[in-house]
Amino acid sequence: AELAAVVRTFERFSEPFNLVTDSAYVAGMVARAEHSALKEISNKALFELLSKLIYAVSRREQPFFVMHVRLHTDLPGIIAEGNSHADSLAAAPIGLCNLPDLFQQAKLSHQMFHQNVPGLVKQFHLKHDQAKAIVATCPKCQKSALPSLGVGINP
């Protein structure tokens, strides 16, 4: 199921992305897929998925990052929470998992990776005000935000 979810990710998203998986098998397959040759195997469904993965990774123009996390850890944090959510999506049939709209995807991504406003605008094709609202409502980003002095004020 996770390999199928990863293949769908590569097929759907042409922009740069980070891929976090609890499957060492899948992380290893993605890392070795570019310019690989696949021999015929008896499991036709697996052969089809691997063929699609190799094709998608080899022809990809934008960068991606693959990260492996330990399976079902009790560690707190957004990566563990995201991994549990991804497990539930990977188990769902292909037609049943609906992706949120771009604004919601940007909010979810920011909760995990804390991109700045220009990064959100570029990655999710948001308006500047939308990206600014996402960053402004993030409690973790507010701790590190510098106070605004306003335009034309010389400290």
TrEMBL record:
Span of domain Integrase-type: 101-142
Alphabetized Pfam families for the sequence: Integrase_Zn (PF02022), RNase_H (PF00075)
The keyword Zinc is annotated on this UniProt entry: yes
Signal peptide, first to last residue: none
Domain of life: Eukaryota
InterPro entries: Integrase-like_N, Integrase_Zn-bd_dom_N, RNaseH-like_sf, RNaseH_domain, RNaseH_sf
Keywords: Endonuclease, Hydrolase, Metal-binding, Nuclease, Nucleotidyltransferase, RNA-directed DNA polymerase, Transferase, Zinc, Zinc-finger
Domain (RNase H type-1): residue spans on this chain: 1-95
Single GO MF descriptor: zinc ion binding
TM helices/strands, residue ranges: none
Protein name from the UniProt record: POK19 protein
Species classification: Eukaryota, Metazoa, Chordata, Craniata, Vertebrata
